[in-house]
Write a structure and sequence with these properties.
Blueprint: H1 7-31, H2 38-45, H3 49-52, H4 59-83, H5 88-105, H6 107-114, H7 120-146, H8 155-175, H9 191-206
Helix pairs in contact: 1-2, 1-6, 4-5, 4-7, 5-6, 5-7, 5-8, 5-9, 6-8, 7-8, 8-9
């Protein structure tokens, strides 16, 4: 007869797995993937290293689940920001602004999500991550096209180009650890300059029509 876990046992295991993931998120934000060994995560979670393998077969499996956990949170934040705006222009700007601003507020975490060398399974998840943001942006571009606010273009292609450019533009600031420590709070390269510049770049790249130019 196969062993069946009691509800109490399953609840305990679920709680331990959640503690492991929360510990891993904290370590990822502090040290990147290099600091998220099974032993380090176990120590942060307050469990034995051996217990980790009851939840994840190896570090690669943990890394994928960790990546998905953080990305889900970031995508939700973008959706929430977009929902607060009504016009196509403001909704498009909200996608880029939220993505970039959150990255600069947690640069070590964003660096891990975007560019830090990691397992090949994480690289595959990065493609999904970028495609998700591309699709969010493409949907808003399509709405703006339907409203006659943009010149004809392929929403998916334009969105992919903008997501790629934004990620590339953020790579330098995100690679500075401690994050932006030597960058003054104002002027080129400062967080309060990077985000507006990226939003401006996006709107110009889209060819947004401004009624004031008529």
């Amino acid at each position: 007869m196969a062993y069946r876990r009691t509800p109490a046992v399953q609840a305990r295991l679920d709680a331990q797995r959640e503690a492991v993931l929360q510990a891993a998120v904290g370590l990822l934000a502090e040290r990147g993937y290099g600091g998220c060994s099974m032993a380090a995560v176990a120590e942060r979670a307050g469990i034995a290293t051996g217990s980790m393998y009851g939840h994840f077969a190896n570090k690669a499996e943990l890394s994928v689940e960790l990546f998905r956990r953080v990305v889900t949170r970031e995508v939700a934040a973008v959706h929430e920001a977009v929902a607060r705006h009504d016009t196509p222009r403001d909704r498009i700007a909200a996608v880029v602004e939220t993505f970039a601003a959150r990255a600069l507020r947690a640069p070590r975490l964003a660096h891990a999500l975007l560019v830090e060398p990691a397992d090949t399974v994480v690289d595959a998840e990065r493609l999904v991550f970028r495609r998700t943001f591309r699709d969010v942006l493409a949907a808003e571009i399509a709405t703006a096209l339907a409203a006659g606010r943009l010149p004809p273009q392929d929403p998916q292609l334009t969105a992919a180009a903008i997501v790629g450019a934004t990620a590339e533009a953020l790579t330098g600031p995100l690679a500075a650890v401690p994050p932006l420590a030597a960058v003054p709070p104002h002027g080129p390269g400062a967080p309060d300059a990077v985000v507006p510049a990226l939003v401006s770049f996006t709107l110009r790249a889209l060819g947004e029509r401004d009624d004031s130019d008529a």
